[in-house]
Fold each of these.
Amino acid sequence: MSERLIEANRLIKKVMKLYYIPTTRAVRPRWLLEEMGVPYELVRVDMNMAQQPEYQKLHPHGKVPILVDEEVTIFESAAICAYLADKYIDKGMAPALEQTERGYYYQWLFYATSTLEPPVEHFMFNVLPSLPEKVLPIKVRSAISTQEALQWFDRVAEPLRKSIAVNNYLVANRFTTADIVTGGVLLWAKKLGMLSDSDPLSRYINNLMQRAAFIRADEDFYAKIAPSVQF
C-alpha cells in the first residue's frame, strides 16, 4: 500500500460523525461544523435506527445529536458545540481561556439551554400536541398553558434583547458558538410564532440566517410549522 493511500485511510478514520435529524437540536452542531469548515460525516437517523440497541449505546434516550470523534462519543447539542469550539479554538468560535470574554461566552451558552429553551419547549408541545410523549410527558406539558409559556419566554428573553440592543452578537459583538446555540433556540421560537417581526430578537435572528454556514446546515430546519391555536 502506498504512503499516499495509507495517509488517506488515516484521515478517513479521523473524520468525525454527527448523528442528525433535520428540525432538531442536531442542526446546531452541524451549523458550527459548517462555520468552522471541519470535515465530518453526517449520519441521518430515522425512528427505526434510533430504537436499535446499538444506537441506545450511543445515546441512552435514543435522541440526536450525537458526535463520535474517534474515542470520544458525546450527546447534548450545547455540549457538542462547546467541545468542538474548544477543540478547534483556532477557528475563533470561542474566546480563548485567558480572555475575559470567556465568562460571558459561558453565560449565554448555558442561558440558552437552561433558561431560554424550557418555555419554548413547553409552548411547542402545547401547539403541536402530536409530538412523541417520550420527549416530554403529557402531564408535564399540561402543567403550563400556552399563554403562560409565552409570558415565561418573554421574561427570559429580555436580557437577550438588552444584550443585542446595540450589538449584532452576544459576546464582544463577535460571532461565536454562543450565537449558534442561542440562535438555534430563538429560531424555534420565531417559527412557532413566539416572536413578532418588530421584536429586536427578530433582527438578531434574521442576521444569523444570512450566514452561509447556516444556509448550508439549514435544509428543512426552517420548514413551516403551523401552530394549532391562535394567539
Amino acid sequence: MPPAPRRSDGTRAAILTAARERFAADGFERATIRAIAADAGIDPSMVMRYYGSKDKLFAAAADYDLRLPDLDGVPRDELGTVLVGHFLQRWEGDETLMALLRAAVTNEAAAERMRGIFGAQLGPVVAKITGGAPDAPRRAGLVATQTLGFALCRYVLKLPPVVALDRDEAIAWLAPTIQRYLT
C-alpha cells in the first residue's frame, strides 16, 4: 500500500495552482502573496514558509514545458514551419506562458526562469538538428529571439500589424527566418 500523501503536498499544490492563476490574471508585479494565499485558502505565512519569497514562488509556479515536437521525421526544409506552428499553438491560449513572458520583461527572476526554460528545452533540440555544431547555442538563442519577440509583440504589446496576421501569414513570415537559424 503506497504511503498516504502528506498534508504539506496538498498545501504546496494548492499554493502553486493559486499562484499560476493569480500570476496569469494579474501579472507578476500586481499579484500579491496575500491574494495567492486567499485563493489557496491558507494563511500568507504558509506561502512564505514553503516558498520563501514571491520570486521563488513565481519560479516554482512557472515550471513550464514547451512540449517541443519530435522533429526526427520532419523533412529538413520544413523544420522552421513546424517549429513556428508549434510555438504559435503554445502561445495562443496558455496564460501561464503569457504571464511568464510579461513578468520576464521587468523581473529578473522571471527572466532567469524564461532563459532556463528556453535553454534547457530548445537548446538540445537545436543541437540535435545541427548535429551538435559548435554554434548550436547561438542558433537556439536566435530562434528564441524570433519566437519570444513575436509573442511579445503579438500577445503582450498587441502591435496591430502583428495581431492582424492570421496563423498562416505568421508562419509564412517567421518560418524562413527560423529555418535559416536552424539550417
